[in-house]
Write a structure and sequence with these properties.
The chain is of the alpha+beta class. It is 41% helix and 27% strand.
Amino acid sequence: MSTGAIVLIVILAVLIITIAALYFLGRKAQKKQEEQQEQIDAMKQTVSMLVIDKKRMKIKESGLPQAVIAQTPKLLRGSKLPVVKAKVGPQIVTLVSDEKVFDLIPVKKEVKATISGIYITDVKGLHGKPLATPQKKKSRFRQTLERLQEKAGAKPVK
């Protein structure tokens, strides 16, 4: 056998081993995520709260309890997460929001939220109405482009 064929066989073997390892690690992570989702669903409750502020901030600066900060992995302590300060009943609490829900949360408004511990999983309007997704502001380039296309009679690009 030539050296080129041996190199190709070795590369192929390494690729097969890495694909198999990634497959089994992915299945393991998926099972773990499903178990966590079951725990979140078992503990969820609906509360009415007044949202004071929302930001993306590092976990050390977020004002979460020290026990929560100690439980997070060291690699994730520097990453930013969506934090919401809200008044739930008579007390002001700091909550962590789901990424999908964070953009829907209105600031300085009262909402009904589904929470599980300190984790906000869902948000609705005060009377159970779903909140509208906020429109992103268009850049000057996009505004100019749409205006020119409108004058030319072309369909706007989205």
